[in-house]
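User: Okay, second chain of the day. Same drill as before: sequence in, structure tokens out.
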Amino acid sequence: MTDKTVAKRYAKALFAIGEEQGKSEIFAKNMKDLKEVIEENNEVRHMLENQSIDNTQKKAAMKAIFADADDSVKNFMSLVIDKNRSYFFVDMCKYFQNLIEESSNTVKAIVKSAVVLSDEQIGKIETKFSALIKQNVKAQAMVDPALIGGVQVMIGDKLYDGTVAHQIKQLSDNLKEQRC
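Assistant: Same drill. Structure tokens below.
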């Protein structure tokens, strides 16, 4: 079984439990918190990946760190640790988030701009692209100083380029075509 298969199976199992209990959003927040803790804290990541540390100690540490998490999520973490699969936690969290987004017909968009966008601007971009692609769009804004102006929106593998550089290139291409 590949690493991705393991992570997907565990994520699907937790997602099914969340749906059954009507706690999908709570689970999503707990899994997001888990991913952030592992990615941002080298000691936690090292503890989870180190096979010489006893699983009982790992479970105790995770229960202490995630004392406010839902009991089902804490039980899930314990099960994953017992099965020696804790090094898959980050991938499980990512797949779980994908399942949440799929169930709510939501897609992620990466919005690049030359300057920081306001929440209002991001909201307008989300609304416009939601109508365009007929899915809920959740935008993640990024600043790319290399852009002169405008925005680039990446949804899945499709790029919507509204940058000044792209518009100038299109204008140039149109002028070249008219000369021929």
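The beta strands are 106-113, 136-143, 151-155, 158-161.

User: Thanks, on to the next one.
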